[in-house]
Amino acid sequence: MVRTIVVKCGGNAAVNAEEVCRDVADLHGRECRIVLVHGGSAEIERLAGRLGVPTRRNTTAAGISTRHTDEVMLEVVQLALAGSIKPRLVTELIRRGVSAVGLTGLDGGVIRARRRAGHRAVVDGRRFVVRDHSGRITGVDGNLLTGLLDLGQVPVLSPPVLSEDGFPLNADADRVAASVACALEAETLVLLTGAPGVLADPCDEASVLGTCRVPPTGTPAITGGGIGMKLIAARDALLGGVANVTIADGRAHRPVHRALTAPATRVLLDQARPAATGSTR
User: Fold this and answer.
1) Do 185 and 241 contact (CB within 8 A), yes or no?
2) What residue spans of 141-254 are helical by DSSP H?
3) Which of 171, 136, 166, 187 lies closest to 34, judged by CA?
4) Phi-psi map region of 151: left, alpha, beta (phi>0 left; psi -120 to 50 alpha)
5) Which pLDDT does position 279 carry in this prediction?
6) Which of 161, 196, 211, 233 would bridge 113 by S-S if both were Cys, CB 3.0 to 4.6 A apart?
7) Is 154 exposed, middle or buried (0-12, 13-18, 19+ CB in 10 A)?
8) Helix 173-183 and helix 227-239: axis angle, to 10°?
9) Does pTM top 0.85 for this prediction?
10) Taking Cα atoms as reference points, which of 165, 169, 231 lies closest to residue 200?
11) Cα atoms in the 13 Å half-sphere on the side-chain side of 96
């Protein structure tokens, strides 16, 4: 039986995108259909600096950090993801003999979202209600993606996404990947990042957890090192029926293969305990 896998290539500069593409090319067509979702935080920061665009993060009281996307930053996000990172990934896959198609959530309206009315954030120690050009995903056109997969293509997908009133919005790429995995009824979601997995101590890579349990609602117990949003995305996927969700090291040799065969951290739903738990490796 052909299985569907969604791989999210993190935007951390340390993630080895060439190795990710090597693995995707190797797995493609071997009773496996793959969608590659990508972010681009490092490239967004680099390009923003080059263009003189100030960057800002919104942090919730629970410690979840997201990019503040005003109108100018939205342009930077589009330039970085659609104009720089995606072409590199697509050409690398084609170079390895894979037919790849680059898409943002705008193309064909494949990812739709509702603009956030406002969310509470802590800025410089003060609490504000923040409104920007970001959105919460409301739908994925699984038929469009399935059609591409049926043609033997590897979709390479990223934000921005399409608002309900027809304008671009930024969205978290991990949550995009989770939404795509749910829409395609994928067997596995792999979230590759610049760490060995979920760390009990963000400053100690030896504290990687073999499993991490997340509550069905509310904030995950572990949010440090930028892992909070990945765990929320992992929960989205699990609640949407994805059987296996792994957060793994995107810096490693053969990162996708390693994530599928010896996952660093497997994320599970915890119906009883709100805290993340796991065996330390």
Assistant:
1) yes
2) 142-150, 173-183, 227-239
3) 187
4) alpha
5) 35
6) 161
7) buried
8) 10
9) yes
10) 231
11) 20
